[in-house]
Specification:
The protein is α+β, with helices and mostly antiparallel strands. It has four helices and nine strands; from the N terminus they run βαββαββαββαββ. 29% of the residues lie in helices and 44% in strands. It is elongated and about 55 Å long.
């Protein structure tokens, strides 16, 4: 099962290594990890997406709470939440530029760069929407693709 964990940490050197080390030492592969400063420059929020057993993840969560620089840990997996990713996709566009732009419009994506042989499309959305865009653009020839990890927040 995929789990989304939010970890509020003190914005200090080495915290990322300690947090990610806890997951790797338990055999969890981190699917995505985003880290950013919060409204308080002394804290950062990590959003971590991992696949794994519920019981072991519960142990990792408890151990995260014991780390000195960890302020708060929330398992967002079963919470009502808003989650988003950002993707940039460079697509070959020599012959079918209008079709690529039309697909981008359908997904409310933005064209952020146009070159003689390629277009770069930017989109934010949930993982399902991101995957759907990738699949529709794949036949045109994806030259390069980069996506952020998921960021998530409890609703309300």
């Amino acid at each position: 099962m995929k789990h989304t964990i939010s970890v509020l940490v003190e914005n200090k050197f080495g915290v990322l290594a300690r947090v990610s080390g806890l997951f790797s030492s338990r055999g969890f592969n981190i699917d995505s990890l985003t880290v950013g400063e919060t409204d308080n420059p002394e804290t950062s929020r990590m959003t971590i997406v991992v696949k794994g057993d519920d019981r072991i993840l519960e142990q990792v969560t408890k151990q995260l709470n014991k780390l000195i620089d960890v302020v708060k840990v929330i398992d967002l997996t079963n919470e009502e939440k808003v989650g988003r990713e950002l993707i940039l996709i460079k697509v070959s566009s020599e012959m079918r530029r209008a079709e690529i732009i039309e697909i981008a419009d359908i997904f409310r994506a933005k064209i952020v760069d146009v070159a003689p042989k390629s277009i770069i499309v930017e989109m934010t959305g949930n993982s399902g929407k991101i995957e759907a865009l990738i699949e529709l653009l794949r036949p045109f020839g994806i030259k390069e693709l980069v996506r952020t990890g998921k960021v998530a927040m409890i609703r309300g």
